[in-house]
Here is the input.
Amino acid sequence: MSRQPLHYIPTTGFRERSKAVVEDDFLQKSFRGAMDFLMAKRAAQFPDGNEFESLRRLGEQIRRNSLDKLPALLTQLEANLVRNGIQVHWAETPEEANRIILAICEKHGAKRMVKGKSMVSEEIEFNHAAEAAGVEAIETDMGEYILQLAGEKPSHIIMPAIHKTKAQIARLFEEKIPGVAYTEDVDALIQIGRRVLRQKFLEADIGLSGVNFAVAETGTLCLVENEGNGRLSTTVPKVHVAITGIEKVIEKLEHVPPLLSLLTRSATGQNITTYFNIISRPRQPGEKDGPEEVHLVLLDNGRTQPFADEELRQTLQCIRCGACMNHCPVYTHIGGHAYGTTYPGPIGEIISPHLLGLEATAALPSASSLCGACGDVCPVNIPIPDLLVRLRTEVYSEPCPDARLKGQGAGYSPWMTAIWRAWAAIYGHPALYRVYSWLASRLNWLTPARQAGWTSVRTPLTPAPRRLRDLLKEKR
Amino acid sequence: MEPRQAPGRPTDVYFFATCVIDQFYPEAGLDAIRLLEREGVTVHFPADQTCCGQPAYTSGFHAEARQVARRQLDLFPEPWPVVVPSGSCAGMMKHHYPSFFAGEPEARKQAEALSGRIYEFTEFLVHVLGYEPKDASGPTKVVLHTSCSARREMGAHVTGRALLDKLDGVTVAQQDHEAECCGFGGTFALRHPEISAAMVRDKVAALKATGAEKVVSADCGCLMNILGHAAWQDRQEGRRQLSLPGEHIASFLLKRTGGSR
Amino acid sequence: MSARDRILQRLTAVQAKEPSPAPEPEHWYASRARNESADGRARRFAAMMEGARAEVHRVDRHNWVEKLREILAAKSIGNLLIAPDTAHGSAARDGLANSGIACLAYDRPIEAWKPELFHHVQASLTAARSAIAETGTLVLWPDAHEPRLMSLVPPVHFVLVDAAHIHATFFDALRAENWAAGMPTNALLISSPSKTADIQQTLAYGAHGPKELVVLLLEDAP
Here is the structure.
């Protein structure tokens, strides 16, 4: 891999980035096509609305119940993993997680790492840290590999390269992979990726992966994938490091099947993925392959913040299926990069403020029309619109010294607050409302022709000359 | 959404017009009232009504929203149904009021009692009145847009459609991405005008592509957004005539069925 | 204080509320159970797998080696990786003797022959422990005799599965086989050849694992 800089995106500037995308006809069409495809695939998996409702209630119960017992389950998970021979590490911050993983690399003299798809490794920006430490970390998921070649971040948590067309990928491969001629044939492109990456698997001395479910009762790590790169990353090298957020633990093995079903059907509309890789131990004496060491890094990075609040805790139920983004009209129009966060779309809007603080993410909770499509499809019933509303109260309220959320009040504006107070004073007092609305209707010719935001693409809002209450009086 | 049946056919209802209808679409409110009256229902309009509080609620200003919402709780002393000609406001009063006043036992009790009496306009016509409109006009093609909260919280896409389907002369066109948000979202349109603009652009294109003569909706918030954008486009492109007219479903129903008589 | 202790301390400092009701997956699965014969399950399994681009051959449990040889020849496969210490592995080796198809044995640690496995082996044969009808899924528990990479690195993967060991659902499989009592180093569910749709949502097979998945479904001769 070349030493090209990775282009990480600042979390501010949301408005500018989204504006650029909505004005790009080509991107508008390609996002629309991709989201239509994913929505249709999911819909085909849930033909029976009652089955979906009852299954997602079960999924919700499993995730809720596990979260309610989180500290106990984490220690149980740790004890069982250790008993199984898997080493457990805890990290409060991304820096700490990177240090832990790089220390494992150093201990083994590992310089070549193959990575299975892991959004948590994106969250901690591991590839940056690895590069600085002289470790070559190769993304092996086809989508992630493409993005690494392009020096970009994923724009979707399940389909990372969803913003790229095959023509762009064809050009990228021709440019970046020696000896490759331009081809838009998808099978051929995948075979090129396979050939390059097989060599990397062969040579790697360490593998990194994420975790979809960590089962406390057996000390088991579960990984969902289609390509086989996750299995290769966790089987071929001598050392396997898995990293996950502390919320991913579930209590029992029998909780896995319903969650797996919800995950794959919601994510890509598959009844199951090609592989479900269930890891409970490092290589045992006599076994001929598999890593000799397996490590798990448990990352907090702000997750304890929503945990402490009964309402916001629901954020942590997420199983990272991406259905909320596939169904979000905002995501469909601006794509994943505009958010500037590792997790885009509706789930990103409610989780990122805890990971990054509300100062850096102040624009996100309001970046939703609250249409409710995300909550409708969420396989674990997270009330995403309600949580967005809750985060709005946290962003816009006056900063208070004992705030429980990092960055509370980041969007506070005395001016905006004054407007809402005035609004409440008028609409909260019928007599005042009558005067105000009477004036607004009688003096409607005074209504400004330019109304912030509204009139850039709409005719001005003008009160009718007579209110309904006036018409009713006239009628009677 | 399970249809709710009111016990018997009510003789009296309250009408909660919503602030948008009172100030911006008064004809829609008037037509809704005329239609109810034509069906033999006495309509009571509490004069002290203002707004359900939703704009401040969704914007994250909850103390302000509560201050306004609280004033609406006292408006409906008789046990009559409360008809709301806007699905999102009905959803606010029906689904959000009870938890919104969780910390105030008295208000909460009131909110809970009120919640059970809140009916979205088309829901009330279909499920409570069993309204059977008789079409009295010539053939036309319309397209129905249902607001997101009306659809998700009140099931109004079903009842709105059921009403239009009963009109013999009316063909209801099917738009692409019917359930997708029009981009209004209250203050969302002001905080994120570019995204909202892209959403309404696509919505208007999908509605126009059906070739319908007009868009009909039970939600005036969406209508302000959709019709405002369509008219703006017309103005940009120098058209004198509206390329996408529209109206509240109450006005459409009333006109199709012979007016207020 | 360690990161571990600080994280756990933050979590335990939260006033514990009554845990929400315990989930009861068995009720959900029981409520959706089908009244289905073993043959019905086998057919559903085969149909699901075929729908996911796997080849499924229903064969007499005493004659599968012949079928294997036939398919290998038809696909012009020159060598087959087997697990020599398993009954099916040695049966395949015996059956393929003098067939012109070389049997390679996975009889040493991967480190001793990694390049050969990656570059030379054309196909492999493993057994499945059981299967799942609902999703068309093979359950593999690789072990010291039949290592993990056998089902992953060679471009064509042959799998033997006993029709008598097909469960209706994943839940039924792990309950009936009592997985929670002792998990292996690695357990696997395999439901199709390796695939990806990462380039413009276009499905392509043979991403990193086997390009072809051939299932020999072992049944009693009629």
Remarks:
- The radius of gyration of chain B is 18 Å.
- Residues 140-256 of chain B form a domain with the Rossmann fold fold (CATH 3.40.50).
- Chains B and C do not touch (no CB pair under 8 Å).
- Chain B has two domains: 12-128, 140-256.
